[in-house]
Amino acid sequence: MGKMTEITVWTRGVVMDKEARDVANAFAEAAKMEGKFVQSFDNYEDLPDRVGVTTRKYARISDEEIEMKYLYTNAHPDVVVVVEPTIVKGINILKGMPEGGLLLINTNRPIDYMLQFIPNADILGCVATIDADGISGIRTVDFSGSEGGVDTAGIGAGVAAPILGALARVTGLAKKENLAKIVSDVAAMERGYNEVKLEKFRRSRVEYSWGS
Asked: Exposure string (b/e) for 37-57, b if CB count within 10 Å is 16 or more?
């Protein structure tokens, strides 16, 4: 099997569940437009969602067909996205991450401030932050797109849009032009792409598109 990138998205049940689902689904769909093989799904261990309880969504992107068809968790995430910033406190969000991984957090706090809550941050290749709440300010609560249903609320109408732009910028795994064909709030996605902050510590497992 070729190079596969595992992306795990942490969120809060119900109140920000759709935002994380949009991040995983839209990013995978944008990568698929570029000829990549993709998967995106919920973590069934977290379901049913409860208000405020931490839940996860997953995406996988590969340059060859993905053989892991029946594994519904990412055991070794190369990229971790945190949709709600307080999740970094007291939860091992980097569990299983190989050395050199990428962490992207939705926050307006400085990177150094966020790192103090992550005891195993020394394995990271880089950390990125984006103030998605400040850019969008919209948190969409909707269950229509869960479990394979049709999303009637529109994908990327809330804070997911700037997070997706930031993720495209720092990973290079999907082009913002393709994301623009998917997300509802293209302007917020563009701002996320342009306003993301990145700090590198070592060579990353993920190819940076920074500066492109």
From this structure: bbbbbbbeebeebeeeebbbb
The dihedrals phi and psi of 185, each to the nearest 5 degrees, come to: -105, 85
pTM strictly above 0.85: yes
Domain that holds residue 54: 4-200
Q: How far apart are CA 212 and CA 96, in angstroms?
A: 30
In-domain check, residue 209: no
**189 touches 164 (CB < 8 A):** yes
Number of domains in the chain: 1
Confirm whether 210 is domain-assigned. Answer: no
User: In this prediction, what percent of the chain has a pLDDT beyond 90?
Assistant: 70
CATH code (residue 121): 3.40.920.10
The model's pLDDT over 33-54, given as tens digits with 9 standing for 90+, comes to 999 999 998 876 666 667 888 9
